[in-house]
User: Which sequence fits this backbone?
């Protein structure tokens, strides 16, 4: 693992510098109250309550596709959690260590890569979008809000969130494919 890290580290320098610059700017910004509330509620919704509610709505109002959508989202959530827990253990990237101007939230763990909130949000959102296009777009807006909140609240770097969102989208599509072929 040490050899791989020594090969990859020089390539990550520009990404790390940009990540740190964005986190510093976000931490220093004093946004309006509505924006602060949106970010805090988005991040808290991404803790799981939003996704449980979406699953229950799919079951209650989903019509014929409800079980397919629910099962795809459940598989997506499980795979997303497995992926981010594994990747965090391997990458071991420390979270931004910067004093935030307006948010005082504590992170669930010490590692930031990838963003588990973003990964799970996009995995579930993508699975639901595939089965319920109209409702799915609402969930994709929620997923994007969760992802943005992780950066704006100083809990993640941009690259953590982008990788989590991309991997989550892939996992969501994979779960839809698995359900369709079972």
Assistant:
């Amino acid at each position: 693992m040490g050899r791989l890290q020594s090969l990859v580290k020089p390539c990550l320098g520009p990404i790390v510098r940009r990540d740190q610059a964005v986190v510093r700017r976000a931490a220093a910004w004093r946004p309006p109250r509505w924006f602060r509330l949106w970010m805090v509620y988005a991040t808290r919704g991404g803790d799981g309550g939003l996704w449980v509610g979406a699953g229950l709505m799919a079951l209650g109002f989903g019509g014929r596709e409800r079980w397919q959508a629910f099962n795809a989202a459940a598989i997506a959530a499980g795979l997303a959690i497995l992926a981010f827990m594994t990747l965090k253990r391997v990458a071991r990237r420390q979270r931004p260590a910067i004093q935030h101007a307006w948010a005082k939230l504590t992170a669930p763990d010490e590692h930031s890569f990838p963003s588990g909130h973003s990964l799970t949000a996009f995995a579930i959102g993508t699975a639901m979008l595939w089965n319920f296009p109209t409702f799915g777009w609402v969930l994709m807006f929620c997923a994007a809000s969760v992802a943005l909140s992780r950066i704006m609240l100083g809990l993640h770097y941009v690259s953590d969130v982008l990788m989590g969102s991309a991997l989550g989208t892939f996992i969501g599509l994979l779960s839809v494919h698995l359900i369709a072929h079972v």
Helices lie at 2-28, 33-45, 49-61, 66-91, 116-131, 133-152, 158-180. Residues 33-180 form one domain. The chain is about 75% helix and 0% strand. Residues 33 and 93 are 31 Å apart (CA to CA).
